[in-house]
């Protein structure tokens, strides 16, 4: 099982996401039934290493945000067209 440490994202939009990516961070969001979407910030390098394993896409992941554990699965990943980087990840909350 993967445990991913994240932090809440306070700013939104294209400019904010670009600044995060320049700082080697990865914007992401957690969707779920009966909950509001939670935008988060992940470490680009750690996620790049984790996503190389097939279990990253199949297993339930644990995201730790401010001491709270959230069980999620990967729903969608956006990749950069020619760089070896991720642009954005969508997670679905497991309830």
TrEMBL record:
GO terms for biological process: translation. SUPFAM superfamilies: Ribosomal protein L25-like. It comes from the Bacteria. Pfam families: Ribosomal_L25p. Signal peptide: none annotated. Keywords: Ribonucleoprotein, Ribosomal protein, RNA-binding, rRNA-binding. One of its GO terms (molecular function) is 5S rRNA binding. Coiled coil: none annotated. Residues 4-91 form the Large ribosomal subunit protein bL25 L25 domain. GO terms for cellular component: cytosolic large ribosomal subunit. Belongs to the bacterial ribosomal protein bL25 family. Part of the 50S ribosomal subunit; part of the 5S rRNA/L5/L18/L25 subcomplex. Contacts the 5S rRNA. Binds to the 5S rRNA independently of L5 and L18. This is one of the proteins that binds to the 5S RNA in the ribosome where it forms part of the central protuberance. PANTHER family: RIBOSOMAL PROTEIN L25/GLN-TRNA SYNTHETASE, ANTI-CODON-BINDING DOMAIN-CONTAINING PROTEIN, RIBOSOMAL PROTEIN L25_GLN-TRNA SYNTHETASE, ANTI-CODON-BINDING DOMAIN-CONTAINING PROTEIN. This is Large ribosomal subunit protein bL25.
